[in-house]
C-alpha cells in the first residue's frame, strides 16, 4: 500500500505541476542557472533518454564545447520547467509526445506539422532542432509464436489484424484501454475487437514478460524496446500514423547553445534512425554497456566525433 | 475539486455499480484475495507461533525471520515474482503472505509466552498432556493477543492487496492503478476510499470476533 500511495502522490504532484505552465516565479524546483559557456545536457529518467543525452553531449564535446550532464532528472513535467529557466540547455525529446504535453488536443498528421505546432506552443526561450528519423513510439506488436501462427511479418500492418483480433488477448498500460491512441481507436478506426484486455505497464517489464510468456499475444511495446530484438517480436507497421509521431528531437534553450552546437546536434539527428537507436538501446539495456561508451563508439563510427 | 468531490463523483456515477469493473465485483475480488492470503498466512503463522510459544524455543530465530520478512518490499517482490513465474494469483499471494506471517507469528509466540505460568503448572500437575495444556489453558488466555496479531495482519493485507491490480488482476487496486494511469482521479479517490472502508470493516469484524470468542474471564474490563 505504501508503494501505491507513493505512486498516487507522485502522479498527483505531476498532475498539479503540468497545470501551471507559465509559473516561473518562486518555483522551489528552480536550480541554479548554468554556468556561462557550459552546455548542460539533461535526460529524463529512463535508459534511452540517458543514452541520447550522452550522444548529444559527446557530439558537442567533439566540437570543443564545454559540457556537463544532468542525468535521470525525472519526467517531462519536471524537465520542461528546468529547460525554461535555463538550468538545462539541451534535452532529448520526442516531438509528438512533447506536443501532446503542450497541447493535449493537437492533431498530429505529419512530422513537419508536429514540429511546427510544437515550436508555436513552446516557451519563447526554447526551440526544437531538426528531428531525426528515429522514432520511439507506441506500437501494436505480436510475439513470435503469434506471428508465425497468423503469418504476420514485419511488412504486415495494424489493419491486417482484422480477422484474427477476436482470437487474441491484448496487453498494455491501463490508459491504453481508454485512449483514442489505444483500444478505443483500434476499434473505431480499424474495427479491431480483441478477445480481452490485460492491464499491464507502459511498455515496461510486465508487458515484456506477458508477451514473452504468451499471457498476451499482442501488446503495446515501444518501437525501440530491445526486447523486440531479443524475443523476435514482430512490430506491425503503422502506415496511417495511428500512434502519431515520436521522432527523437533535441529540445534546446536558445541562449545556451551556439550555432556550432546547433549544427553538431542536427548532424547527429540526420544519422540516427529507428534501427540504429534500437541497436544502441540493445547495447545498453541488454548487454549492460555504459551508455557513454556506446555513445562515443557510435559517434566515432558515424564520423561525428 | 477536493477529495470529497472526487469521492462523491465516483460513488454517484451509476456506471461504477455494475459489470466486471463495478464496485460489487471489485470488492468481492478484493475480499477473496484478502481472505485467501490471511488464511494461508494464519496456516503458517499460528501453528508455528503456538508451538514455539509453548516450548519457549526458537524465539530469537523467529524474531530474526520476522524482521527480515518485514524488510521485503511487497511491491518490488510482486513484480520480480511475476517476471520470474508469470502471471496469476500465486505470484500475488506470495508477497501478501510474506507480509502477513510476521505479525501473526510474533504476536502468537509472545501471547503464548506471556501466559501466567501458575495455571499452566497447575494443569501440568493435574496430569494434563502438553497438547491439551496448549489448547485448553494457554490458548484461551492468549487469544486476545493472538487476535490482535491476526487483525493487524488482516488490515495490512487488505491495504496491500491493491497491488494485485498492477499485474493485471482485479480487486479494489484496479481503480487506483487505472485511475492513476488514466488521470482519472475520481477513480483513485473512490478506490482508496473503498480500501479504507474495507479496512475499518475488518477492524470491526475482529472486534466482534473478540467479543464472541474470548472468554469473559480473560477479557480486559
Write a structural description.
The complex is a heterodimer of chains A (305) and B (221). Chain A is an alpha/beta fold and 305 residues long. Chain A folds into 2 domains: 35-136 and 246-301, 3-Layer(aba) Sandwich (D-Maltodextrin-Binding Protein, domain 2); 140-235, 3-Layer(aba) Sandwich (D-Maltodextrin-Binding Protein, domain 2), CATH 3.40.190.120. Chain A is 42% helix and 13% strand. A 5-stranded mixed beta sheet of chain A has the order 7-6-8-5-9. In chain A, strands 3-10-4 form a 3-stranded antiparallel beta sheet, with helices on both faces. A two-stranded parallel ribbon of chain A has the order 1-2. Chain B has one domain (3-10, 24-213): MetI-like (MetI-like fold, Orthogonal Bundle), CATH 1.10.3720.10. Chain A binds chain B through residues 1-4, 7-8, 11-12, 15, 171, 173-175, 177-178, 198-202, 205-206, 209-210, 213, 215, and chain B through 73-76, 79, 82-83, 86-87, 156, 159-160, 162-163, 165-168, 173-174, 176-178, 180-185, 188, 192, 195. Chain B: It holds the Pfam family BPD_transp_1. Chain B: InterPro entries: ABC_transp_perm/SBD (IPR051204), MetI-like (IPR000515), MetI-like_sf (IPR035906). Chain B: It is a multi-pass membrane protein.
